[in-house]
Amino acid sequence: MHDRSPSGLHLLHDTDATKSVSPADLPFTVQGMTVAYHHKPVLWGVSYSAPKGCLTAIIGPNGAGKSTFLKAALGLIPKLSGETRIFGDPIEKGLKRIAYVPQRSAVDWDFPATAIDVVLMGLYGQIGWFRWPSRKHRQTALDCLKSVGMQDFANRQIGQLSGGQQQRVFLARALAQNAEVYLMDEPFAGVDAATEKAIVTVLRQLVAEGRTVLVVHHDLETVRDYYSHILLLNGQHVADGPVETTFTSENLQKAYGGRLASTQLDGLSQASGA
Amino acid sequence: MDIFLQFDLPSILLGSLAALACGLLGNFLVLRKQALMGDAISHVVLPGIVLGFLFSHSTGSWAMMLGAGAAAIFAVLLIELIRRVGNVEPGAAMGVVFTTMFAAGVVILERTGTAGVHLDVEHALYGNLESAIWLDAYSLSDLWNWQALSTLPESIQQLFVVNLLIIAFIVLFFKELKISSFDPLLSASLGFSPKWLGLALIVMVAVAAVAAFSAVGSILVIAMFICPAATARMLTDNLKVQLVLSGIASLSAGLFGYLLAAFGPGLLGYEFSVSAAGMIAVVAGLQQLLAMLFAPHYGVIMRRRRQKKHAVA
Known about the structure:
By secondary structure, chain A is an alpha/beta fold. Chain A has one domain: Rossmann fold (3-Layer(aba) Sandwich). Helices cover 38% and strands 21% of the residues of chain A. Chain A contains 12 helices and 10 strands. In chain A, helix 4 packs parallel to helix 7, helix 6 packs across helix 7 and helix 7 runs parallel beside helix 8. Chain A is globular, with a radius of gyration of 19 Å. By secondary structure, chain B is an all-alpha fold. Chain B has one domain: ABC transporter involved in vitamin B12 uptake, BtuC. Helices cover 77% and strands 0% of the residues of chain B. In chain B, helix 3 runs antiparallel to helix 4, helix 4 crosses helix 5 and helix 9 packs across helix 11. Classes of the chains: A alpha/beta, B mainly alpha. Chains A and B meet through helix 4 and helix 5 of A and helix 9 and helix 10 of B. Chain A: One of its GO terms (molecular function) is ATP binding. Chain A: Belongs to the ABC transporter superfamily. Chain A: It comes from Pseudovibrio japonicus. Chain A: Pfam families: ABC_tran (PF00005).
């Protein structure tokens, strides 16, 4: 078993440490998750609970299992052990309350679909089996495109969008899902500055609405600016908690080992003093 | 006129309907990068067809179709099992299952003495398109005479029903097929299991393959699963439009393929006709070539022109 309680619990207990939190208040909890690809372990007994209504970065070196963590938690890839609970419910029941944004490379952008087609897919769960999207659904999809600044590209075939625009379409699709928990796999990978700004705005908006957002993030320089919490992984759970107390050079050293130069570490941790 | 109705029309209908059944489903196979699944499935279903035949003692029967569907499901499950238990990559698992099941079909065929009937190699390759005849047709009015229509060859009636089934399947599951083809992960997380949808698609492919197979042979089946869909993809970015265009391409390949095969050599002064099923496949390939050259956006010529414009600018 894990010897430390997940940080989400700490946070919620800050004011009243005696009252226990009902599992129904924990948006996303993973217990003892182990995943292996071809007998090679990628994640070892990771336990974690996401703080509700917070914007959390999942960081760690390449191959730390960050994307694997999200996919396995959602049951999208097989795992050796572990379970996920969404507001206390098992994952099968909780999937409806989650929106997952995969890496851009996960889909075929030559597919005969327009931007609004892709956003509409986020509404398919709501629409249900056999039924076709109505005009109301199209309007909702268009509103979601608008909120990421992509309304002018609604009828553009998705392969003819830039990488950043494609990422924004993915984000709009996630918005259309109107979920309570958002799990995003590297939304900032290879996007232009305008898109990065648009994504950050939307993420903050989501959190302001009380939703819980977890983002696999690569760029350590921006962690402090964008997020309130982090989860550090390197195949195992290294640390999690608020940025001020957890994004420290010791923790980063633990997660990245020799892969971060000491000067880099210094730079990142200096900012923590501010 | 009655010769056309009795001999040419049934063949055209048979070829076109076979092409349509495969052509429509081919869209999803091509989008899922499983274009050769049609080919593979037409091999896998052989033991199912033979067993169905042994039960029903007639070719082109629904029992054969059921056997084929069952064989397709069995094959998909077996592939999944071998992949998991043997820890081999999907391509290898497929290769093992497809060849083994085809071989098993051949063995059953040989051992049960069914080989002599209709299920021989030549028919398997080229089909039996020209043998479709409609003797009760005498005038055009028979086309809307229910009694005369009911004497259409059984294979045509069967293909007609299969086409209705396929169109219903696509209309009913359009959104689900679309999302599970584009983004299986999202599809799964929204509760539209890409596994079950994929299995349903494969079963429909098996049914289409079998219905088309006995009529037009495996060459046409393979061509029709790929060509009309690929042709239509060159012409549009809208999946609904693509489905309609692929349907038109299938039907036109069926019509013009047969006409070219039956009358083309005659027009050139030759005394013979060529295999209609082969010609339909050739026309389907030609349509694809034309689309690749002249498509408004993706065609080679328009792309060249755009590049030139950029170079000048």
